[in-house]
Structure formats: C-alpha cells, structure tokens
Amino acid sequence: MTNQVPVQKNEYIDVKFEDLTHEGNGVAKVDGYPLFVPNCLPGEKAKIKVVKVNKGYGFGRLIDLYEKSPDRVEPDCPIYKECGGCQLQHLSYPGQLKAKHKQVKEVLTRIGKLENVVVHPVLGMEDPWKYRNKAQVPVGEREGGLIAGFYQKRSHDIIDMEACLIQQEKNDKVIQSVKRICEKYGVQAYNEQTHKGTLRHIMARYGIKTGEIMVVLITRTPNLPNQNQLIQEIIDSNPDIKSIVQNINPKRTNVIFGDETKVLWGDEFIYDYIGNIKFAISARSFYQVNPEQTKVLYDQALKYAGLNGEETVIDAYCGIGTISLFLAQKAKKVYGVEIVPEAIEDAKRNAKLNGIENVEFAVGEAEKVIPKWYEDGVIADVLVVDPPRKGCDETLLQTIMEMKPEKVVYVSCNPATLARDLRILEDGGYTTVEVQPVDMFPQTMHCEAVALLVREKHSS
Ligand SMILES: C[S@@+](CC[C@H](N)C(=O)[O-])C[C@H]1O[C@@H](n2cnc3c(N)ncnc32)[C@H](O)[C@@H]1O
C-alpha cells in the first residue's frame, strides 16, 4: 500500500469482500487499503459508497450487492438494520460459527504467535434465538403514548419494539404489558433533554429454569402515579411475575441504575439454575444472559480443570461465584476473588443456598488479593481466570507464573486479550493445550473461549 489513500470520500467503487471484522463489518481492500462496510460478507461483490476516509483505513456503505455469499440469509428481525444490537443476522448460523472460529484462530496466530494450537469448532446453540433472559429497554414518548425499545444505531432515538428475536418471549410480553399499564395510569416517560418525566427504563428478567419473572421500573423520582392500582394490574396481567422492584435514578446520566432500590411487590429475588446450582438474582445482580450456553462454557472449564476432589482452586474475577460453585463440587477448596462487593455478597448467598461450604470469597483486585493469598501459603493446583474484556492484569499473570499451578483455565470474552495473555503465560513456562470457543451470543459478533494451559514439565 502506498502512502497515498487510494479512495476518496463520497466515491462509488466496486469491491470484493475478503474478510469480516470482529465488529461484523465486511472488509474489502483497494490497493491494500482496507474499507469496512456493514452488512457485507466475505466473498461478496458490491458497489459501495466511501463514507469516511482515515489515514490507514476507511468506511463504506453498501449500495448494490452484485454477488451474494452462499452463507447470506434474510434477517427475520424487522428492525435489524436500525437497531445495532445484533451484527450477524444476515449470516447463516453455521456461517456465524465458522466466522467466530476463524476470528479466534487468527488472533491466536497474529497476537499470540500460537499458530499450532488446536482451536476446536465453536460450540453453538441448537436454537440460536430467544436466548436472552434479561431485557432492559429505555422508555420514551411519541404522540402522547409510551414507547420502549432500543436506541437506534449511533443515536438516542428510541425504536418502539414489540419483540426482540434474541430475547425470551416472556420478557418481550412483560415489557409490552408494563408499558401499556404505565401509560394507562399516566406515568410519564423520562426525557433526557429536559430531565423531566418519570420512567427511564423497564427491565424484565426471566429465570429460564424456574419460570420466575422480575420487573424493575427505573424511575427519576420515587413517586409513581396510582402506584397501588398500577402494581395490581401488572401482577394480574402477568401471573409469572414474582417480584416488582423500583430503582430510583435522579441523576442526569447515561448510567441506567441509581443507588436506591426498593421492592414494590413480591420477593427481593427471583431464582434460576445453571446446571444443578441455584442462583438468587436481585435487581442489581450480575447474572449471565444466556444461562444455557453458560452451562456449556463452564462445563468446558470444569472439564479442563480435571478435578478429582483433592485440589485447591483459585477462581480469579469470580463475579457472583458461578464458576467457583461449579468447581467446588469437584475440588477440595475453592477461593474466589472479585472486585465488586455486591457480587461477592451474591456469591456467598449462592454458596449458602446450595449448601456449598468449601468456598471462600474475597472482595478486591485479583492482582492484589492473589499475591497476598500466595504469601499466606495458598497455592492453587488449578487457577481459573474469567477476566473482563481487557484481559488479565499483568501482575496477576506474574503471580501465576510464580505460584506455578499445574493448570490454568482461561475463560475469555475477548479473543484478542486472550491471545496476548496466553503469549505471556507461554513465555513464562506454560503450554496452551487447546482452546474451545463457545457461542454465548448468537447473531452478534461476540465470542467466548476457554483455553487450557499446563505447566511445562521442565519449568521448575
Ligand atoms: C467476565 S466477568 C466474570 C463473571 C464470573 N465468572 C461470573 O460468572 O459471575 C469479569 C468479572 O471481573 C470483575 N473484575 C474486573 N476487574 C477486576 C479485578 N481487577 N479484580 C477482580 N475482579 C475484577 C468484574 O466485576 C466481573 O465480575
């Protein structure tokens, strides 16, 4: 590629797509200069309009598709193009799984220099729709009525939505019903420009195994008009609801939740199961949105851990202790560490709820707490990490290399940081045995993966 950018803004050009980015855009090259175009797939030929030109790459808009990929499908969702929640509905599900596999394989080679590591085919869902157990939608007003849905791509305009195809139908129905009832009782939508009005968001959570539903009304002010009748009508219209909660967020902010939460009716928690472990879920609890695939992911982590009941295990970045509780059933002792205090409260509650006693949870940064445990004589046989997208802190990786657990099981939601961290661990005496990607979020580009690393025999 020369230093000269070979395309101009607003130019129309014919291109052939070679690749897919991790955001789901097609990649076409003009004299080596990459152009990213939404809604285009590898192998396709199209006329595009160049809409943005940067020094090293540009963006385009699809104008005319001349040659379609055999993997292209017609998206079923009527608001797919506007919404932006899904990026891959125009790609068949087998095509999505292949694309995610390629993505993991490529970053492991490019960033991790791990060209020979076995990356298994992605474990996908039998039915890759209606899998989300949580819907959280902003509320607005149009022509005097309430609307609720998703923000249009790159804007704060709400698309009024009856159904989201990756959402559990129960949640969609509850949201529609709550919206209608709030409208009937004169609840005004919050207006972010004027900072007036009441109802900001509606959240519905569904326990897939228990059928229990929680509704959360996120409001600017504590008062809801006609509160008693409103609540009664919500309950009467939706018999599966076990809990109605109000969260009050008086601030001018994009952050959804405020600090004050109160139960308006029913229980503080709903319950759900992942495998045989029961979880109590409150309005603010973190809980995986696709529990069916979470079980697949954590079963894989458990398989890689290969426990026989004698091991000490550390679960770093443990959240509400989901993996810890899975592991504790097969280990001697599990230590979990997590930075969010409320998540650790949930983890402790969930351990109790399941009668699991061989776990110990600590609040703090994994990179500070684990070195302290190590100083105090805790040595893990197996160390599991499930960090946020930015990957593991380097101090933690250093501690792992000093502590030398026999196995490291790395659960990742970002293949790029996984690859970076695997390289560091490889250079520190570990070998990556294999990687198993799991599709937790069908129709989107997100990809999770579990990697098994073992300590090389000769590294003391
Ligand atoms: C991908 S989630 C793991 C979820 C967890 N395995 C579960 O199922 O609940 C990453 C977690 O790491 C936590 N976290 C982020 N930075 C951290 C740090 N420096 N030390 C410990 N936990 C951290 C986040 O709060 C989040 O709960």
TrEMBL record:
CDD domains, sorted: AdoMet_MTases (cd02440)
Record's keyword terms, sorted: 4Fe-4S, Iron, Iron-sulfur, Metal-binding, Methyltransferase, S-adenosyl-L-methionine, Transferase
TRAM domain residues: 6-64
Binding annotation for S-adenosyl-L-methionine: Q288, Y317, E338, D386
A biological process from GO: rRNA base methylation
Family from the record: Belongs to the class I-like SAM-binding methyltransferase superfamily. RNA M5U methyltransferase family.
Protein name (Swiss-Prot/TrEMBL): RNA methyltransferase
Native source species: Heyndrickxia shackletonii
Taxonomic path: Bacteria, Bacillati, Bacillota, Bacilli, Bacillales
